[in-house]
Amino acid sequence: DQIQKQQLTIPGIEFEESSFRYYPEGNLAKNIITNLESFYRRILFGKTGFSLSSIDGTGQTILTKRNWRQSETDGQDIKTSLNRQVQIILTDTLTKGLEIYQAKSASGTIIDPSTGLIIAMSSIQSDTTPNNNIDNISNLFEPGSIFKPLVVAMALDSKKIDTDFICSDCSKPRVLGQYTINNWDNTFHPNSTLSDIIKNSDNIGMSNIIQRLDKDNFIKYFHALKLDSKNEIDLIGESISPPKKFIADIDLATASFGQGLAVNELQMVQAFNTLANQGKLISGHFNTQILPSPINVFSPETVIKVIDILKYAVENSAIKSLKPKNLEVCAKSGTAQIAIGGQYSDTNTIGSYVGFSPCTSPKFTMIITINQPQKGEWGSSTAAPLWFEIATKISPLL
After folding, report:
1. What is the band of 211 on the pLDDT scale with cuts at 50, 70, 90?
2. C-alpha angle with apex 394: 393 to 397, nearest 5 degrees?
3. Burial code of 298-336, b = ≥16 C-beta within 10 A, e = fewer?
4. Beta bridge partners of 121
5. Strands (E), the chain
6. 170 with 190: CB under 8 angstroms?
7. What is the Cβ-side half-sphere exposure of residue 224, based on CA atoms within 13 angstroms?
8. What residue ranges are annotated as transmembrane (predicted)?
């Protein structure tokens, strides 16, 4: 290039050096890579070397105690856990889902169950205005029914209930003061077992379970799952919800089915991943050189019980029509109404599906979230089909 510049002697033409950012993969994981670069800037760029010294009138260095020298430090490479093929599958499927369900946005996060390494993370918006936000960590939402298996795990782990639990009050609405708790489809399931409560996504049954768990135990597990604190994620811009005290009985009851509390997508998939990781919570991250210490939340015995419940729910609910025969899945769907002006909207919802596969020695844990779909209001009819499509494609790759 330098030789060509010297040989080119056309009058009026000059060369000017400039720098610009280039993404070899285009928009694929663009926001993630940019954010990671900001987070690890000091490591990647290293330090510039310099010297500070006194000189005499002739420009010669004078040796004094004020002389100071800092050696140059080369920047270091960061190897991320992003899997290119999985990232493409996730992004393409979310893009398709955004169009099919005419949603405001769609996002997904896939993690390695045992290490917490993030295999893929993507968020797609219908609004094409450029922004650097990563919805997976910056957007808060009420998780809805995907939160129910965690409450069951809390109650089992604290020994407030056992697997022989029967909901004797599930034949009618549950009244708490001026409030009435009903099921999403206004049906009742008398004498429901734990497996039935999760399969039918029974709000009445869940409110009975959390009453036995009690507020103090719930808050203890909620805190242990880091649902009220920031993650150790190596990204900038995470949002968390202000701490909630769950003082009123109705607050605790609605929390049992994921209403009245807010989390970001990464928090939710991390918490659910404890069921895939023998009860251990491990923070999601991209840097393969970092291995966060796992935190014991649930006992392995508790996890085995919840896995059986999840497996039963997938195999015996309407979701089973989406599941390929050769794919073992432990998962739960959820639908949450969006609060607008202090009132829950009847038309604006967030659908989600979270789970892991296979149920024993899982390869991945994944959450898919569809924000305000105009076609299909339930997580089981929006997020779940996308989840199974992605799972079928990535399972052979992991």
Report:
1. very high
2. 120
3. beeebbebbbebbbbbbeebebeebbeeeebbbbbbbbb
4. 109
5. 50-52, 54-55, 61-62, 68-70, 105-111, 118-125, 140-141, 166-167, 174-176, 179-181, 192-193, 263-264, 280-281, 295-296, 330-340, 343-357, 364-371
6. yes
7. 21
8. none
List the Cα angle 193/196/197 in 5-degree steps. Answer: 90
Give the model's confidence band at 272: pLDDT under 50 very low, under 70 low, under 90 confident, else very high. Answer: very high
Contact 356, 364 (CB under 8 A): yes
CB 109 within 8 A of CB 118: yes
Asked if 389 and 325 touch (Cβ cutoff 8 Å), the reply is no
The residue behind tokens 């049992």 is 256
For residues 188 and 194, what is the distance between their CA atoms, to the nearest angstrom?
15
N- to C-terminal Cα separation, the chain? 43
pLDDT tens-digit series, residues 100-124: 999 999 999 999 999 999 999 999 9
- Residue 302 to residues 129, 267, 269, 277, 279: CA-CA distances in angstroms? 46, 21, 18, 12, 8
Task: Name which of 271, 236, 222, 227 is nearest 111 in CA terms.
Answer: 271
| Rounded Cα gap, residues 327 and 333, in angstroms | 17
d(Cα 300, Cα 203) in Å, to the nearest integer? Answer: 26
**How far is Cα 173 from Cα 365, in angstroms, rounded to an integer?**
34
330 within 8 A of 314, measured Cβ to Cβ: yes
The C-alpha atoms of residue 117 and residue 114 are separated, in whole angstroms, by 8
Q: Are the C-beta atoms of residues 398 and 363 closer than 8 Å to each other?
A: yes
Question: Quick one: tokens of 321?
Answer: 């029509």
DSSP state of 375: S
Tell which phi-psi region holds residue 167, choosing left (phi > 0), alpha (psi between -120 and 50) or beta: beta
Q: Where does the pLDDT of residue 242 fall: very low under 50, low under 70, confident under 90, or very high at 90 and above? A: confident
Q: State how far the Cα of 78 lies from the Cα of 76, in Å rounded to an integer.
A: 7
Name the average pLDDT for the chain: 90
Residue type, 113: P
175 by DSSP, 3-state: which? Answer: strand
* Structural domains of the chain in order of their starting residue, each with its CATH number: 84-397 (3.40.710.10)
Q: What is the CA radius of gyration of the chain?
A: 26
